[in-house]
Amino acid sequence: MGKSLKQSLAEFRARWREARSFGVSLRDLNRTRRPSEAPILLKTRFGEFHVRGGDTDVAVIKQVFVNREYDFSRLPQSKDLQKAYEDILSAGLRPLILDAGANNGASALWFAGQFPRARVVAIEPDPSNAELARVNTRRAGNVDVLEAAIGAQEGRVRLIDNAHKEAWGKKTERADDGVPVVTVPSVLANYPDGRLFIVKIDIEGFERDLFSANTDWVDAAAAIFIEPHDWMTLTRRSSATLQKVMFSKDREILILGENLMFV
Q1: Sign of the CA dihedral with 248 first, then 234, 217, and 222 last
Q2: Are residues 14 and 29 in the same domain?
Q3: Is the same domain home to 182 and 229?
Q4: Total count of domains within the chain
Q5: Which residues pair with 179 in a beta bridge?
Q6: How distant, in Å, are the alpha carbons of 45, 76, 88, 98, 200 from that of 82?
Q7: 168 & 231 share domain
Q8: Distance CA 195, CA 115 (A)
Q9: What does each C-alpha distance from 39 to 64, 131, 247 come to in angstroms?
C-alpha cells in the first residue's frame, strides 16, 4: 500500500526541518554514507560537527540541538539552577558538569554553551566515540574528554556491541581487563577548585552499577539527568538501583525527552 498524502507531507516537513538545521536531509546524508567511512565535517546552524557514516551521530546531534532534550530554560526550576550556578561562581569555585555517556560530544557541547564558566567532563568508554568527542568539543574550550566508563567502584569493563536497534552506544560489563572505570568522587578529585553542579547519565544500562553504592554525590548535584534503559535490558531491571536512590530523595522529577530530570 502506498503512502497517504498525509504521510508524504509529514515526511516532507521532517526532511525540510532537517535541511534547515543541517543543510541536508539526514536521510539523504545517511543514504550516501557507510558506517566504516572516515568522519566528515557537517556544517549546521548549531556549529560544525564531525560525523561518521550511518545515522547515529546525526541523530545524537538532532536529539540535543533540534529536540533540545537537555534544555530546561522553559521550566520554572531553571531559575533555581541558574542561582546554583551563580552561587558556585560567587564562592570562587568552578561549576562542574559530568556528562556520563558523552557519545560524540554533542551533549557536552550543549552544556558547555549554556554554562560557559563551567567545566564539562565528558566521560565516554568507547574509544571511537571518545576520539570524535575530543574533535567535536575542541572548539568549546571548557570540555575535558575522559575515555572511561563510570560506575560505583573503580575497576575495568569490557564493551559489548548493543544488539538493540534503537541503542546508540555500546553496553559495558565488569571484567578483569578492558576500559577503566572511574567513579564520581574520583573524577571530582581531579578538580579541587570545582563543585558538582549537573550530572547527565546515559550509560546504556550500566546505571544499575553506578547507583549500587557510593552515591553520596547525588545530594551535591543541583540537577541530574538520567536516561533509564529498562526498555533495552528487559529482565535485568537496570533502573532498580537508581529508583531506590533517587526516589528516596526530596527532589522534583521532570521528564525531558527520553530523560528523567531530578532537581
Answers
A1: negative
A2: yes
A3: yes
A4: 2
A5: 157
A6: 26, 11, 10, 17, 17
A7: yes
A8: 14
A9: 19, 11, 41
Q: Which residues contact 196 (CB under 8 A, 6 or more apart)?
A: 96, 98, 184, 188, 217, 220, 221
Closest-CA residue to 166 (of 254, 237, 230, 256): 230
The whole-angstrom separation of Cα 222 and Cα 126 is 28
**Over its length of 263 residues, how does the chain's per-residue pLDDT go in tens digits?**
456 777 767 666 666 666 666 665 555 555 545 555 689 999 998 999 999 987 789 999 999 999 999 999 999 999 999 999 999 999 999 999 999 999 999 999 999 999 999 999 999 999 999 999 999 999 999 999 999 999 999 999 999 986 654 445 678 999 999 999 999 999 999 999 999 999 999 999 999 999 999 999 999 999 999 999 988 765 578 999 999 999 999 999 999 999 999 99
Q: Do 43 and 78 share a domain, yes or no?
A: no
Decide: 195 and 94 in contact? Cβ < 8 Å. Answer: yes
Return the C-alpha cell found at 182: 572511574
pLDDT of 53 reads 82
Q: 183 and 154, same structural domain?
A: yes
**Measured between alpha carbons, how far is 29 from 181 in angstroms, rounded to an integer?**
35
Per-residue pLDDT at 25: 52
Find the domain containing 48 and state its range.
Answer: 1-67
d(CA 200, CA 81): 14
**In 10 A of CB 251, how many CB atoms?**
16
Cβ–Cβ < 8 Å for 103, 124? yes
Number of H helices, E strands in the chain: 10, 13
**Would the pTM count as exceeding 0.70?**
yes
Among 220, 260, 254, 255, residue whose Cα is nearest residue 242: 260
